[in-house]
Design a protein that fits this description.
Elements lengths: L1 E3 L2 H13 L3 E6 L5 H13 L2 E6 L19 H10 L4 E3 L3 H4 L18 H4 L3 H16 L3 E5 L3 H13 L10 E4 L19 H7 L1 H14 L4 H14 L4 E9 L13 E9 L2 E8 L2
Parallel strand pairs: 1-4, 2-3, 2-5, 3-4, 5-6
Antiparallel strand pairs: 7-8, 8-9
Helix pairs in contact: 6-7, 9-10
Amino acid sequence: METITKLTDLRTALAPLQAHGTVALVPTMGALHEGHLTLVRAARKAADSVVASIFVNPRQFGAGEDLDAYPRQLERDAAALDAEGVSLLWAPQPDEVYAAGYATNISVSGVSEGLCGADRPGHFDGVATVVCKLFNQVSPDMAFFGEKDWQQLAVIRRMARDLDLTRPHVDAIHGVPIVREADGLAMSSRNAYLSPEQRSEAAALPRAMRDAIAAIRDGADAPRALGNLHDTLLASGFTRVDYAELRDANSIAPLEGDNGNARLFVAARIGGTRLIDNMAVG
C-alpha cells in the first residue's frame, strides 16, 4: 500500500488504479476500528481497487469540540489498512486540503436540519465540503460510509445527487450497517474516551433504544416511549440526552410515530463524550 500526502502525488498514484478497473473510496478520520475495516471489506468486494483516506477535518468540528483531542494514530491505521488490501492511503495535512485563503463552503438543506445538524451548527457543512473535495481529488467510482452516522450519509447522498458527483442512476454511495460491540454499543472512535465505568454504563444506550422500539411496535404512544428512553439513559449514568427522535429514514423529516420507514435517532452524553446511534423502527 502506498501512502500519499500531497495532491500532486495523489493524481499520479491514482492513474494506474483508474486505468485498470473500478476504484472505491473509504473516507475516514482515522483511529480505525472494526467498523472502519468492515467498510474496507465491503469496498474490496465491490471494486477492483480501494483508496482509503485519513483526514481529521477541522471544518466539521465546532467551538469547544474535540478536534485537538481526536485520536491520531496514522502508523497503526496504515498498517491495518495495508493488511486489509487497501491499494492507496490518502493522508493529507489540513493545509493541503484547505489552501491559504480557502473560502468555499457546501451547505445541504433539508436532510441536515435537526438532530446533529441542530446540536452541531456548521458540522454538516464541514462534512459535505470535505467529502465533495475528496470525491474531486480521488474521482472514485463508488464510496462507502457507515450507517452509524445515518444523517451524515443522507447529507452525502443528497449532495452527490445535487452536484452530479456520481453517474446518473447509479447508486455509488454505499451505506454499510453499524458494527456493534458484544454488548450492543455501536463501534466508534470516541468510545476510547470512555473510562471503564463509563464504557459499562454506555451499553444502556442500545438497550434503551431497543426497548423504546419494542414499545412503539407494540402500540405504545411514541412520545411516552421516547420519554422513558430519556429517563432510562439519565438513570444509567448518562449526563444529558441531546435528542431522542423518530425521523423518516430517507428525508430525515420528523415523525409522530412509525410510518413504516421510521428510524430512532439518539445522541447522549456520558461524561465528556457524546455518543450517537440509530435503529430502524419498522
